[in-house]
Amino acid sequence: MDIATDNPAAPPAGLVAGNAAPAAGTTGLTQRYYRRFTASQRVLHAGLMLTFVGCALTGLPLLYAEEPWAAALARLLGGFESAGVIHRIGATVMILVFASHVALLLAKAIARGGVLPLLWGPDSLVPQPQDVNDIVRSFKWFVGAGPQPQFDRWTYWEKFDYWAVFWGMVIIGGSGLLLWFPIFFSQLLPGWVFNIATLVHGEEALLAAGFIFTFHFFNGHVRPSKFPMDTVIFTGRISEHELKSERRAEYDRLVKEGRLAEQEAPAPTAEAKWFGWVVGGTALTLGTVAIVLIVYSIF
Ligand code: HEM
Prior knowledge:
Layout: E1 33-35, H1 39-63, H2 68-76, H3 80-111, H4 116-119, H5 129-142, H6 156-180, H7 182-186, H8 192-222, H9 232-235, E2 237-239, H10 240-246, H11 248-256, H12 260-263, E3 264-265, H13 270-298
Antiparallel strand pairs: 1-2, 1-3
Bound molecules: protoporphyrin IX containing FE.
Protoporphyrin IX containing FE binds next to helix 1, helix 3, helix 6 and helix 8.
């Protein structure tokens, strides 16, 4: 039975926006859920989250070593040396997470007979002409000059986040490895490259932390329809109401292709949602602390 309204702007009776379950004693109906993220995608996202926050908190005391908070934070981590060790452990896991993601992409390309299905179409994370259309419609909506746009599998800002992290990994990982193994790389590269790598590593870290801990967190958790927490990346499930109200183009396409039923999944357990709240809440808190420290140090 279809319990969600066809008007994407209004939640159905008895339902509240975001991830919330139907209000008790109203419709008496339970929500349907659909699979959005696979187990491997959720594990890799968790790995990236953990290592990114870890590398940011252990790298920032080095970048702002003259600030009083840097010494306090380093002391909390067991000293500057120990912060450096934690940074390298986090970096190693982060590189493994990234390598696993690329390996899974290659496996997917082989299974689908080439890279083209990954590069093109509504399921692809590569920007498509439709994204330009979506950006224009979004800005019209922001100024009240049009209806709220309805998205497919990925919104334009999710694609932006993905590629920012993808290329960011190459830059921050590459420069970090140069800093980690200078003797090895000095056999291959001139000395000035190490000065550039130090600059690039620190500036890219600021850019990445500044972006992830503000825009990415805002889009995922602070937007009015998501506040205070979107648990979809932890549970892997999206409610029928959310799918229909935010990703109507995807919903309609799945219906048209006769694939909606195969995406249906059991509702996330209370434990899975709690896990999302605790892990997501911790990352939000630590990220916000990092932003406060960066802004305090810059000004
Ligand atoms: C992905 C792989 C990464 C590798 C291999 C790596 C490696 C390194 C190494 C070897 C250092 C020098 C540490 C020391 O002198 O003890 C360093 C410094 C630093 N790292 Fe990373 N790191 C990585 C990722 C990150 C990430 C994700 C961030 C932040 C979001 C970050 C932020 C920093 C900062 C701020 C510094 C201090 C830079 C400076 O002193 O100018 N790193 N990193």
